[in-house]
Write a structure and sequence with these properties.
The protein has 444 residues and is an all-alpha fold. The protein has 19 helices and no strands. The structure holds phenylalanine. Phenylalanine binds next to helix 1, helix 2, helix 10 and helix 15.
Length: 444
């Protein structure tokens, strides 16, 4: 605690770091499989509504808490509301981060595996990509080794410090990934039969609606925006005093949603166009589950000139996108232990690494455990965290702090209506919507 806390060096660095946390496997791996499961367009509509109605406001709320306290997720509640139980919201967040790392690292390992398969050329001799993916799932040693590699890689960046490690990697790689996705969208949507995929993605079929689609879409929104666990809070604790919080929240959310939609526009047209037997597409998509990305994308690359190079670059960039997300997750847990238990950053990090390795190993060998961690964190822990953060800023936090943070102490002008509207969202709209979605998801 004696060291001074670091801050991000530049404005671009801040957006890049927050976007780096948001954009990750959640967009490119999880979004398509949840969309497939949720019946396509209807899922996407609800997902976007969640982002607009409470995703962006909640991100701003996390920024407010983080920057006004300049502390870790639990310490922030401690500082802003000493002697109350609000600190449990921060603690729940830290626990959630840990749970997410426990399965996310396994998918990071798959991504690295596909990168290796690409550069060695083996991926493009495969004829059945489903079988190829299942082979990886069956190979526990390989999954564990790659997961361990990724955990250590993340820890290395955390060790190198906030500014250098996170900022630099995010600033360069994110734009490249974005461009690559655009190229892939062009290829995928010009395949014969791609239109069916776009229809699935953008034309709602109300007959297909599942009762859990609201909960699934809400969970995906929280997960993708890194909300509800104090991640954005922790990053905002490193923001500078002149950072425009609302602007960054909007920029990050728009970027994040665009990446998810682009990923969808690559995967669904490819899946529909390239599936050997069109009748089984929809059921395959639904079963697609965690494998959808790893089955469809290599197939698409096989339809592009220079498949090895495309797929090597894609899986490399995807690994980097995942890395900027795992860094943010691990940072939350590490800085919490470091600041709350007065351990050095190094000791704290070591503890976190050991914990994640244990959890990661179990999820690598057990798909049900993997799914449990995924579901518990995205559909329950994050929205519950978000609900309480909303209530905290809406009802408990001194209005003066909120206002000072939103306007940077009066330097940015903001209309009274805007401030009132924002307060209404945090007090009523967001908490009630989250609760209703929960109830509907559980009962429906
Ligand atoms: N948003 C990240 C992704 O989409 C995952 C994440 C969730 C990161 C929660 C931090 C906190 O991949």
């Amino acid at each position: 605690m004696s060291e001074t806390r670091s801050t991000f060096g530049s404005k671009l660095g801040m957006v890049a770091a927050a976007a780096g946390s948001a954009v990750g496997l959640g967009n490119i791996w999880r979004f398509p499989s949840e969309t497939a499961d949720g019946g396509g367009a209807i899922f996407i509509i609800i997902y976007i509504a969640c982002i607009l109605f409470f995703g962006i406001p909640l991100m701003v709320a996390e920024f407010i808490v983080g920057r006004s306290s300049r502390a870790n997720a639990a310490g922030a509640f401690h500082k802003l509301s000493p002697g109350t139980q609000w600190k449990w919201v921060g603690r729940l967040g830290v626990l959630t981060g840990f749970v997410i790392l426990g399965f996310y690292m396994v998918v990071c390992g798959w991504t690295v595996d596909y990168f290796i398969q690409s550069i060695t050329g083996t991926l493009h001799t495969v004829s059945d990509f489903s079988a190829n993916f299942n082979q990886l799932l069956a190979n526990n040693t390989r999954q564990i080794v790659l997961m361990v590699f990724f955990v250590l890689l993340t820890a290395f960046f955390i060790f190198a410090g906030v500014q250098k490690g996170i900022e630099r990697s995010a600033k360069i790689m994110m734009p490249v990934l974005f461009l690559l996705l655009i190229v892939m969208v062009i290829r995928a949507t010009t395949l014969d039969g791609a239109a069916a995929g776009l229809n699935f993605l953008f034309k709602p079929d109300l007959q297909e609606v599942k009762s859990t689609v609201f909960l699934d879409a809400m969970g995906q929104a929280f997960f993708s925006l890194s909300l509800g666990m104090g991640c954005m809070m922790t990053y905002a604790s490193y923001f500078r005093d002149d950072t425009h919080l609302t602007k960054i929240a909007v920029q990050v959310s728009v970027l994040d949603s665009m990446v998810a939609l682009l990923a969808g526009m690559v995967i669904f047209p490819s899946a529909f166009a390239l599936a050997a037997n069109p009748d089984t597409i929809v059921s395959n998509l639904v079963e697609g589950g965690p494998g959808l990305l790893f089955i469809t994308i290599p197939e698409l690359f096989n339809h592009m000139q220079g498949s090895i190079i495309w797929s090597a670059i894609f899986f490399l960039l995807l690994s980097v996108a995942a890395l900027t997300s795992t860094i943010s997750l691990m940072e939350v847990v590490t800085v919490y232990i470091h600041e709350e238990y007065r351990m050095s950053r190094r000791e704290a990090l070591l503890l976190v690494v050991i914990g994640v390795l244990v959890l990661g190993t179990v999820s690598a060998v057990s798909l049900p455990f993997f799914n449990l961690l995924d579901m518990a964190s995205a559909k329950f822990m994050l929205p519950i965290g978000g609900l309480f953060i909303s209530l905290f800023v809406g009802w408990y936090l001194d209005k003066k702090i909120t206002q000072a943070q939103l306007t940077n102490n009066g330097k940015i002008s903001m209309g009274v209506t805007f401030l009132k509207g924002y307060s209404f969202i945090l007090k009523f709209l967001a908490p009630i919507a989250i609760l209703l979605i929960f109830l509907y998801g559980l009962i429906g």
